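Exercise 3.2. Students should predict the tertiary structure of the chain below and write it as structure tokens, then compare their answer with the key that follows.

Predict this chain's 3D structure.
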Amino acid sequence: MNTITVVLTVATLLAAAGVHAHEKEGHAAKPKKYNASKVEETAFGREGDPAKATRTIRLDMADTMRFTPADIRVRRGETVKLVATNKGQVLHELVLGTADELKKHADLMKKFPAMEHDEPHMAHVKPGKSGEIVWQFTKAGEFQFACLIPGHFEAGMVGKVSVK
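Answer key:
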């Protein structure tokens, strides 16, 4: 029995350390410099040039595991600045993608909560802070944004982007 208790205790501590490590990531605070030569096309668009953003869309994140607003609309080809403000007490993130990609990434985050990532379609936002993504929606369709912190996505922290 002692061996099982020790193993469970160590596993719990490692999982907690992983979540804590993700929370301490500083890359959300660093402004991302736009580099047109490194922009990659995705199924839901591409990193946008901040100088070409036509409007700013503000989103609030809450510990109720919701975004406000939960639905946004953009025009195909439009470059927007998404500004996410964390109104809660825990780390949240804003990640753009297709429904399938976000589900796969959320599952991966459950397995590896300490994994570091810093992509142009992601913003990690500490409590009381704001983060931003500048994105050009080059394809029409229905896409999503979500918080992929383990447990948040599963609790319904997902929004919809309609691109017409």
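Discussion points: The mean pLDDT is 84. Residues 2-163 form a domain with the Immunoglobulin-like fold (CATH 2.60.40.420).
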